[in-house]
Amino acid sequence: MFLSMSGRRPQLFVAKFPGNASCAVTSSWDDNDSGNMEIAQTLDSMNLKGTFYIDFSNAKDQLSESQIRTLSQRHEVGSHTWSHPDVRVCDDHMIRREMVESRKRLEGITGNRVLGLAYPYGHHSRLAQRIAEESGYLFARTTEQGHVDFPPPDPYSWGISYYAVKRYGRPKRFLSRQTFSKTALLYLTNLTSRSGHLALKLFEKATARQGVWHVHGHADELQQPANRSEFLDICQTVAGREDVWYTTNGNLFLNEIVKERVHIAERQHGDRFKFNVSVAPPRQGYLENTPAPLRLMRPAGWDADFQIDVKCKRFEMGRSSRYVWIDVFDNEVEIEATP
């Protein structure tokens, strides 16, 4: 959302992501596995964020309700349906029950709204996508790799960037297949057969496109030493960057909802420029802690430390050499810029 300006007029617009971010990094973890607590600790150690998709399929070594609440406080908890079925072979009634009952149970445990769903096995159908939307989910995640652009064309068939399982071999091993799978083609087009190498190539693409880098996996797979070692190396490479927003799956979609509701009006009084920012409808519930990400560009001729006055109760602000980023949490905000 750009405003017209001359060379000496400041420009306020809605930014891609909160803060000083030009790229977002997120992770997601499937199944009701107590090993998710170790995954969360690893993410915490690097200030990364994850979304844990939980089912209630009576698997061994499940998370306790207390552990699920802890995950929801530190990260995010999403639905993985109730009993982990392949939704492609389920009828309308069963899919709806799986999605609705799982969400109710998780919200009862955590006290938080469950925003997203991960399809079991990554399998989905048009029927499942429709029911996920009707059941109140904001998005539903698949396991299709190679995705870095955001938002996705369809939030109910959202793919991942890469799957955190170590893979060795040569691209020619895929050539023996009569048809290329999407995964094989992804590795071939990126000239690699190693998941770690693919992961970093996709991270470079995400940063170049102002996109999202999304790693997905399972706790039991990362208990394997080779998988865990590679995963830690990759995380250390992408962590701790000032231009990256480290966030949960759900916050990515909440950010899109808020951005669509921002309206900016400009006024000038002498050498002072005022911007009135409104976010409608009023944010409440699960949107109240989602900021509207704004960026105020410094015009030519203005000093880098020009004066900024933000009038609202809750906001965060920072500067770079070319602009000021402002994340506002209120519905009505006034921003004044003076050279």
Q: How would a crystallographer describe the biggest sheet?
A: 6 strands, parallel
Order of helices and strands: EEHEHEHEHEEHHEHHEHEEEEEEE
Which shape, going by the Cα principal axes?
Answer: globular
Nearest-angstrom radius of gyration? 22 Å
Output the number of helix runs: 9
Estimate the strand proportion. Answer: 15-25%
> Structural class from helices and strands?
alpha/beta
Low-confidence stretches: 1-5, 168-179
Query: Span from first to last CA?
Result: 23 Å
Number of distinct beta strands: 16
Give the proportion of residues in helices: 25-40%
On the 0-100 scale, what is the average pLDDT? Answer: 91
Structure description:
By secondary structure, the chain is of the alpha/beta class. Helices cover 29% and strands 24% of the residues. It is built from nine helices and 16 strands. The strands form four sheets. Strands 2, 3, 4, 7, 8 and 9 form a six-stranded parallel β-sheet that branches. The protein has a four-stranded antiparallel β-sheet with strand order 1-12-15-14. Strands 10-11-16-13 form a four-stranded antiparallel β-sheet, with no helix packed on it. Helix 4 links the parallel strand 5 and strand 6. Helix 3 packs across helix 4 and helix 6 runs parallel beside helix 8. The longest helix is centred in the first third of the chain and has 19 residues. It starts with 10 loop residues before the first strand and ends with a strand. The N terminus is likely disordered.
